[in-house]
């Protein structure tokens, strides 16, 4: 765990003390967009046209934000176009590393570097930033296109469609406002909410995160009683963004981040929905519980100083979900 300050690595833990014990996530630094024709996207600069073989993804299988990008890569048939390097799940004083000693950790497949921070330094030698995954790298310009997962998945949703012929759309125009509204609440209270609970260093900061987290879960449980997916009868980006947090919940957030009022398996609708998403072809292969469990319990020594990795529950994600019978008119588009 650490950050780059003017190009120099400092092994700092998050500064919660200056925020009353609250974890405040920093804003991602690289915000360019790949577009079909290389024109600029909603932020950053242009010059990143969709091309097969040009871009590379650096991910941690442990990380829910990186996981989103891997799901969109799978669902949008981008695997043959965008290759991937996977970091080691332990994130210690050197931050994310390219150590290959854990099964599935590939090392840096582009440059053979030792640390992810060296990729950030290649993009900007004087950079001040946290060194986070995912990173979307451009081989041609040798720079980072984006390190913001919310934007990377929006690029993946459409920018390469003319190359892959895959027209699945997880952001249908007419549903965009509702998706954004859902994302806002779910990001604040669930995706980032589990981190705000887990990294809190005062009771007050913990309470501020944990109560709204379970309020949102109750609200989602109710919502999924009458809708097959979050927005209705089709899977959207909002579902996938919630998925990567809930699939980790019972194994890590429940215990390690003290989100232990309830487990997801105790919510019949959320649990059925979670199984259905896990069973969508291509998705189960993106879920790596060995990396997830190792990363969380081992990396955060302020929370788990002895680095004891517990036995964790094994919910049966492959069990029939029954959601198709419940919502006969729905379809997977
Ligand atoms: N806004 C970023 C957040 C990514 C992020 O925080 N990733 C975590 C891993 S789950 C990370 O790399 N943390 C390292 C650090 O904060 O030092 C995104 O969604 O892409």
TrEMBL record:
- From which source organism is this entry? Cereibacter sphaeroides (Rhodobacter sphaeroides)
What PANTHER family does this protein's entry cite?
A: GLUTATHIONE S-TRANSFERASE OMEGA-LIKE 1-RELATED, GLUTATHIONYL-HYDROQUINONE REDUCTASE
Which PROSITE patterns would you find in this protein's record?
A: GST_CTER
GO molecular function list = glutathione transferase activity
By what name is this protein known?
Uncharacterized protein orf11
Source organism, top-level taxon: Bacteria
Q: Name one GO cellular component term.
A: cytoplasm
Residues holding glutathione: 96, 130-133, 148-149
Where is the catalytic site? Answer: 63 (nucleophile), 195 (proton donor/acceptor)
* Cross-referenced InterPro entries: Glutathione-S-Trfase_C-like, Glutathione-S-Trfase_C_sf, Glutathione_S-Trfase, Glutathione_S-Trfase_N, GST_Omega-like_C, GST_Omega/GSH, Thioredoxin-like_sf
Point out the annotated site residues (description: Lowers pKa of active site Cys): 253, 296
Q: Pfam families annotated for this entry?
A: GST_C_2 (PF13410), GST_N_2 (PF13409)
């Amino acid at each position: 765990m650490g950050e780059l300050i003017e190009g120099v690595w400092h092994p700092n833990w998050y500064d919660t003390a200056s925020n009353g014990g609250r974890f405040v996530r920093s804003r991602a630094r690289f915000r360019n967009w790949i577009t079909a024709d290389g024109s600029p996207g909603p932020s950053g600069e242009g010059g990143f046209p969709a091309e097969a073989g040009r871009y590379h993804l650096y991910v941690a299988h442990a990380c829910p934000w990186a996981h989103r990008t891997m799901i969109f890569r799978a669902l949008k048939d981008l695997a043959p176009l965008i290759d991937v390097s996977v970091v080691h799940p332990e994130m210690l004083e050197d931050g994310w590393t390219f150590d290959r000693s854990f099964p599935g950790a590939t090392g840096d497949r582009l440059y053979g570097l030792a640390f992810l921070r060296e990729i950030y330094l290649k993009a900007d030698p004087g950079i001040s930033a946290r060194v986070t995954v995912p990173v979307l790298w451009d081989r041609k310009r040798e720079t980072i296109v984006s390190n913001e997962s919310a934007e990377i998945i929006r690029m993946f949703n459409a920018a390469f469609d003319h190359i892959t012929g895959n027209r699945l759309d997880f952001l249908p125009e007419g549903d965009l406002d509702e998706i954004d509204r859902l994302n806002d609440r779910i990001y604040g209270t669930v995706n980032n909410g589990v981190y705000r609970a887990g990294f809190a260093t005062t009771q007050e900061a913990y309470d501020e995160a944990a109560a709204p987290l379970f309020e949102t879960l109750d609200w989602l449980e109710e919502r999924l009683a009458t809708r097959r997916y979050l927005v209705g009868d089709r899977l959207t980006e909002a579902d996938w963004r919630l998925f990567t947090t809930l699939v980790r919940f019972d194994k890590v957030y429940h215990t390690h981040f003290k989100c232990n009022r309830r487990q997801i398996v105790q919510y019949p609708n959320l649990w059925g929905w979670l199984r259905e998403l896990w069973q969508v072809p291509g998705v189960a292969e993106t879920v790596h519980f060995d990396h997830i469990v190792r990363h969380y319990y081992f990396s955060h020594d302020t929370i788990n100083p002895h680095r004891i990795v517990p036995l964790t529950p094994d919910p049966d994600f492959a069990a029939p979900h029954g959601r198709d019978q419940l919502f006969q008119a729905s379809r997977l588009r």
